[in-house]
Please model this.
Amino acid sequence: MVHNVALVLGGGGAAGNAWEIGVIAGLAEGGVDLTEAADLVVGTSAGATAAAQVRSGIPAADLFASVLSPPVQPVGQNPERPPSLPMARVFERMRAIGAAATSAADLQRAMGAFGLESDSTIGSGAAQRRATVAARLPSPQWPDRPMIVVALDAHTGELAAFDRDSGIELVDAVTASTALPGLVPTVSINGSHYIDGGVRSSENADLASGYANVVVLSPLGGRNRTPEQGADPAGQFEGLRRFPGADLESQVETLRMQGSHVEVITPDADSRAAMGTNQMDPTTRIPSARAGFAQGKQEATRVTFV
Model:
């Protein structure tokens, strides 16, 4: 078995989660089974859910089959989403926060404040959302093998890298990692509130530092850009400013300078078409998974380990 392999699963909404599972299943079909090979899995936002799925012990082919099945609604829960601010307003606010920020830390604190502010109107949906996330997890228990779920402290903007030794339940960690400010409530854990880890970085690939091999699946394709580079297409983290070190390109460059062999997989043309412009739309899941599977089989020939 190959050792010292880190798998990084980035954010990207419902489409991104399904695409990642499809790619992983396609890679396994092509002879590269990351559910077995990965010594560490890092999951951010939608990638946090995918990380829990990958670490569940369920074969990649079965994970893929589950994505192609209708989603399971938690018993007794209303299938409709809790109320949220209109997405256009949320993205407009995010761009304004990014434009005003003077540093990554400043941006993260401001996004945390936005999340806490939004709780006054959407906080009542917290219990329902936790149940929805729990229904997506194959197991409520942290896996035995190393896994990091990335969130941010809403009060300080600081990184929260949750793992099985953090003393919190897996469902709370994943719910926190997927708590996009303005759209869903912040997540309260032991007296603190947390927001989506994608606010720091869509991938947080730097957390794989020290691993000889790093495989990054990035549904957003490293598309988060500075205002000078142009805004992203509509979707998760639209136009959120990225300071140096928070973007995928610079994180990968740093890993390579540290000696890691890094392979990055981003959606190809067919996958981008399947994912559409609103990656949080649940109707994109099945086509995204199928496109990811086809892409994963093709990518298997270039994913190698040193």
About this structure: The chain is about 40% helix and 15% strand. The two ends are 12 Å apart (CA to CA). Residues 85 and 137 are 26 Å apart (CA to CA). The mean pLDDT is 89.
